[in-house]
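ok trying again, last paste got cut off:
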Amino acid sequence: MPKNLIRSIVLAVTLAGASVASQAAPVTVTFNEAGAPVGQLDGTTFYQSYGIANFTSAVRFGADSRLPDDGFGITNAPAASAAVIFGEDISALGMTWAVSGSGITFVAELYDIADVLLETFSSGGVGLFGTASFSASNVRKVVFHDSGSTVAIDTLTYTRGTVPEPATLALVGLALAGAAVARRRKA
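nice, full thing came through this time. structure:
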C-alpha cells in the first residue's frame, strides 16, 4: 500500500472522528444564565443557542433555597405539566429535579419528534430533590409533572445532535479513501 494512500485514510478517519466529536459536545442549562427572562418562558428565544426551541407552560424562577444547585430552575406551576421542546435531536439527557413537598412524585417523560414516548422517570414520591439520567436518543421533548403539584427542573444536561454509528463512520472513511485513490489514479 502506498504511503500517500495510508496518509489519506488516516486523514479521512481523523476528520470523520473530529466531526463526530464536535457534534457530541455536552450542554448544561442551569436556568441561571445571565439575561435569561424570569416568568413564563413560552415563546422565548433566549435558550435557542442551547438547542431548546420552545417551552410549554414552563415558568423560570430563581432564589428558591429548596433547589440543590443554585436556586434557579423551571417549574410547571400553575399548569399541571410543562415541557421543554428541543429544536434538534438530543441524547444522554440528565437532570436535577425538585418537588414542593414530601410525598410528591416528580415525573419526566421523553418523547421523539413524532411524539412517541421513549423513556419515563418517576421519583416515586421519595425525596425533595434528586437526579435522573436517561439513555434514550433522538429526544425532542421533555414533559415534567406530578398530578397537580408543583415540581421543578433545576439543571438539564444533554448532548446535542445525532451521533453517527461506528458503521457510518467507517463508510465515510472508506468513501474519502476511495476518493483519494481515484484522484491519484487520474494524476
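cool. Confidence is low (pLDDT under 50) at residues 18-22. The chain has one domain: 26-177.
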